[in-house]
Design brief:
This protein starts with a helix and ends in a 6-residue tail after the last helix. A hairpin with a 2-residue loop joins β1 and β2. α1 packs antiparallel against α10. The protein is built from ten helices and ten strands. It has 284 residues and is α/β, with parallel strands linked by helices.
Length: 284
Amino acid sequence: MQAVDAAVLVAAAVSDSNILGKHRLMSDTKPVVEVTGLRKTYVMGKTEVHALQGVDMTIRQGELVAIMGTSGSGKSTMMNIIGGLDYPSSGTYLLDGIEVNKLGKNELADIRNQKIGFVFQGFNLLARTSAVENVELPLLYDRTHKIKNHRQAAIDSLELVGLGDRTDHHPNELSGGQQQRVAIARALVTNPSLILADEPTGNLDSRTTVEVMQLFQELNKKGITIILVTHEDEVSRYAKRIVVLRDGRIIRDETQVPDSASDDIAKLILKQKREMETAPVSAE
């Protein structure tokens, strides 16, 4: 049996019942995000735009959730409020038991720095700064000073995402997938309660998308809570739970047995290998 074939069979041997069991146990874990009666209204002249209309949602520790919706559904507004970038018009939002909607701007900045790790579509790396220095950045703004050795923490974070040998590389020396891994390492370096990823694969090709989702699944297996804001079914199929918004309301909220990104990577490798074996050899 070929090594790649074996990898596919081993990955496929994971029992669906075990995965479902984890879903049942999830209700026993502590809430990380709790929103109740969340409303957000934007006033534009004489017009009111109701971006969120009474949203209730709880996300517990260890969940991997995809928040989805078309343009105007309210998913971006929801992301901004969960990320501490905006305040709701009414309702409550608790992050790790802290009522975020009652915090002042400085307290909110501390919450963003200490409890939320952001991953963006465009990576947002400093071009003239090495990977390890990019990852160190959030620690420079951490007023708790709980992490003393910034460089070692950044190196550890890069190793966690498989880039321990790229610490001194600049963004222009890294592929798109590697740049996003640096961005994920930066999000992890403060040991946040939540990773909030906004269209994290939007600038990546299909193969690299699966590789990044494989990383998110591996991190989630370590107990890290992750929210993906996406419009792509190719991304949401790797989540354990899907929340769909429309017109500022949740119209669907259900768990699922996620596809395995590791399985898909193994299948892609196997396919490429077979294509190379069957490709005609050009005459010299």
